[in-house]
Amino acid sequence: MNDIRIPDAIKPVDGRFGCGPSKVRPEGVEALSAVSRTFMGTSHRQKTVKEQVARLRRGLADFFSLPEGYEVVLANGGTSAFWEVATFGLVRQKAQFAEFGEFGAKFAQAVTDAPFLAEPTVHKAPGGQAAFLTAEAGVDVYASVHNETSTGVAVPVRRVAGADEGALVLTDATSGGGSLDVDLRETDVYYLAPQKALGSDGGIWLALMSPAAIERAYEIKATKRYIPQFLDLVTAVEQSRLEQTYNTPALATVFLAAEQLDWMNAQGGLPWAVKRSAESAAAVYGWADRSSFATPFVTDPALRSAAVATIDFADGVDATAIAKVLRANDIVDTEPYRKLGRNQLRIALYPTVDPTDVVALTTCIDWVVERL
Ligand SMILES: *Cc1c(COP(=O)(O)O)cnc(C)c1O
User: Fold this and answer.
1) At the N or C end, where does the chain have fewer CB atoms within 10 A?
2) Which residue numbers delimit the Aminotransferase class V domain (predicted)?
3) Relative to the CA of 202, which ligand 1 atom is closest?
């Protein structure tokens, strides 16, 4: 099986289809290389690095058309760290979760485990379907996921009609942010990490926060709740305003993310990115619809993600074997989310990925299946 050689003529130009870490543009890495002696290995408290943090914050504000009063906040630890930050610094008493995959479940678990918070309400849906938020008296934080990376289900970002006055909406946009359309006025915290749709590297979290969310962080801090310093959201807000982070960030990650946002903004910003991801989505779902052995895992077309495609394979066509052959041919990370346990391939449709490469990937899959 490992001897199967896919002809170069049908292979994608870039073989990286992973959902995170995802493809980083070679141009970004070249730009990083060009500043290797002046930026890398220099103090994050000095102008050279602070200018890159500022460029990243500006790039995000432009890209997402940051509404009046919203702020771009960042700190270390990726999205997983942000869940803990939000548990300590944004949930006043009771949260409600829409959980429809592994990532939503992890945040819900963090809040469930917090001894100083009430038991959250969790609306769950099985893999491939979506769960939604509903108005509930006493809930002060509503949390959902824009795109569930583990299953390839995407939902619109919307406020909860009938929610208590002042209740916050938190949206995990780690993989959806940058691929899917959003109006930030529909959420209070749109948080993400740079190694997915933003096509940079991991290690930091980015949060686009409304004035109400920032106010909530100050309000909770004033209650003297114990908050570990590293997870203190007020510190993150204040450091971000100074174009810094509480502790040392990965400088390469900051630079690559800033570079990538400048590139995406130059291409036409979020509308361009959404269109490009939609083009890749149309290619892969269209191929699956025509295929005799491949079907989209998400049966409701309205929930099918344009950021991450999950494709099931018929009995007798071994997706694991396909992924292995692809990998041996430098087409990598098409394996499904482990815990989903399906005969499936998962393909990133982020704007960094060229839609023509997605088409080439489907051609390669057909070619491999014929030969297995
Ligand atoms: C990848 C991912 C995370 C985790 O991000 P880390 O930066 O690795 O902590 C959280 N939520 C979603 C939706 C993701 O895709």
Assistant:
1) N
2) 140-331
3) 7
Distance separating alpha carbons of residues 271 and 112, to the nearest angstrom: 37
Model pTM score: 0.98
Phi, psi of 289 (to 5 degrees): -60, -35
| Amino acid (1-letter code) at residue 338 | R
Residue 77 in tokens: 């630890």
Q: What is the pLDDT along the chain (372 residues), one digit of tens a residue?
A: 668 999 999 999 999 999 999 999 999 999 999 999 999 999 999 999 999 999 999 999 999 999 999 999 999 999 999 999 999 999 999 999 999 999 999 999 999 999 999 999 999 999 999 999 999 999 999 999 999 999 999 999 999 999 999 999 999 999 999 999 999 999 999 999 999 999 999 999 999 999 999 999 999 999 999 999 999 999 999 999 999 999 999 999 999 999 999 999 999 999 999 999 999 999 999 999 999 999 999 999 999 999 999 999 999 999 999 999 999 999 999 999 989 999 999 999 999 999 999 999 999 999 999 999
Q: Which residues line ligand 1 (CB under 6 A)?
A: 20, 78-80, 103, 145, 149, 172, 174-175, 193, 196, 202
- Please count the other Cβ atoms lying within 10 Å of the Cβ belonging to residue 174: 30
Quickly list DSSP for 273-321: HHHHHHHHHHHHHHHHHH-SSEEES--SGGGB-SSEEEEEE-TTS-HHH
Cβ(108)–Cβ(99) below 8 Å = yes
Distance from residue 274's CA to the centre of ligand 1 (Å): 20
